[in-house]
Every structure is written in structure tokens, then in C-alpha cells.
Amino acid sequence: MPSTAPRGPGPPLDEFNALLRAYCTQGRVSEARAIFRRFHSRFPPNSRTLNTLLLGFKESQNLVAFDLFYHDMMIRGFEPDAVTYCIRMDAYCKKMRFFDALGLLDEMAKKNCSPTIKTFTTLIHGAGIAKNPMHARRLFDEMVARGLVPDRGAYNALMGSFVRVGNLRSALKIMEEMEKAIQLDDVSYYTLLCGMKKYEDLEGFWKLYKRMVEKNFVPRTRTVMLLMKVFCENSRADLGLSLWDYLVEKGFCPHRHALDTLVTALCCKGNVVEAYKCFKQVVDRGRVPSERAFRVLEGFLVRTKKLDMMEELDQMTKRMQALVPSQF
Q1: pLDDT tens-digit series, residues 136-167
Q2: Where would I find the PPR repeats (predicted)?
Q3: Who is most buried in 33, 112, 192, 200, counting CB within 10 A?
Q4: Fold of 202-328
């Protein structure tokens, strides 16, 4: 492998790598490659340099250019590391070439490059994309057999591979297996909830939500939005309100799109007072609700002749107009 010590005047190699990464992040891979070709003799590349460029080519989704650049690097004497193999595996998996990605495990063995948890997680995720959950399970078990301890990413990738084919029972078993070894995270809940929504397992959806609350887990915004949308679309505004109260109790102010959904559902069910309470909680926390939530609530307050609430809503609106004039 070429020496990593820079020659001649100029910025150090770390800054050269940062420059390449900046171009790749912006999707300007061709320019990054041109800079590399122009200056690589002054800053002999290390593994980070070449992996940065390889990652840029992967994100461009041009697999031909990706492979050509990799082989060019091999000619230059570059020795791939575990990160390099992960990048290549991920590129192949996302192009539905799972078995090409899998074959890289043998290549790693020939080069005495040990696979990592990330290596196996990438392949497990790839097996899921290929809708081959049994192969994902075999890879997970092989990882354990090699003495690697699965992390949340590995468990979630395995769980996701079964969700993709609608095997929710197996996915739930993996979740239980995961809970015994390591705590669930937001990806775990979101993956399963998405599967239950897609395959219309509403009973399982309610149960998983209650299980999440029992564990005192606070979901992230995307999971909150998923829960709220499913609850309200299926005439379970009561569960939407329960989720709202749970989050507020935990000190979390839900996203205003969640408020839009809940206010509309509650008002349509005749629970205007509860909708008003949720709206006010957002305002009291210094957040500005959307105009949609305001208009829906205002319309129902007028219709139900809640005069005191209408007056207070008007005062809140004036305060918000002073803060964000363009909002209302």
C-alpha cells in the first residue's frame, strides 16, 4: 500500500481527505476524482482517502463507474480494508446483486481481512432487500458463530428482512430475542409498526404500541407520526390522545403535524375540548401550531359555540402573530 506521509508543501492529508469528502457529499464525484488525480502524487492516499471516493461513487448509484474506480485503485496498489468491503457490499445489495455482495466474504478471507459486525449487518440488510430472510438468518447466526456480538443494527436488519416478506411472527420472535440481549431502539419499533401497518395487522399494531408504553420508551418523531396517523385513520382517536398525553408527560412536545392529525380526528369525534387542550399545550411550550390545526379547531369551536375557548384562542393567535407574522 502507498505511504501515507505527504510530500512537498501544502495542506496535510487530513485536509485533502476533507476536501474530497466535501465534493463527494455534494454529489460532485467527477470533480473529486479530478482533484484526486491531480494531487495524489503530493498527498499519497491512505485508506480513508480511497474509501471516501469509493463511497462517493456508491452514492452516485453508477455501479459501472464504481467498479472501474475500485479496479483503478487496485492497480495503484491500494489494499482494501473492512470499510472498503462494506461499501462495495452495500453498493451491490442496493442494486439487487446480493450474491455478488455475498461473494466478497470469500474475497475478504483470501486477503486476511476479518469481517466486522458492520460487514454482516450490511449483508443481512442486503438479504432483506433481496427478500431472502432465511439467508439473512444464516448470516446472523454465522456472525454469532464467529464470536461477534450483534448490535442493534444487526438485529434490526434481521427483523426488517422478515418484515419485508410479511413474516411478522418471525419478526416478533427476533424482537423478543433482541430484548433479551439488548434494548430495542426507535428503528426496532418503527420497522415492526410499518410492517403491521402494511399487512393490516391492526391488533398487533395496538399491542406493540401498548408494549412500547409499558417499557417507558419515548419514540422519535417519525414513529410518533406513524402511530398518530394509523390511530386516527382507523377511528382510534382515543389511542392518539393517549399517545399525546404520554409524550407530554415525558416532557416531549410532539411535532405540529402530529397535532394536525390529532386535532382533526378529535374534532370529528366530537372531542373538541380535548383537541383544544392539545393545541394549547403546544402554544404554552412556545411552539407555533400549523394554520391547518388552527382553522380546524376554530371551525369546530364556532360550530359548538365554545365562546370562552374561542376568545382564548383569539388571544393565543394574536400572541403567535406577533412572534411569527407569516404563520396566520
Answers
A1: 999 999 999 999 999 999 999 999 999 999 99
A2: 81-115, 116-150, 151-181, 185-219
A3: 192
A4: 1.25.40
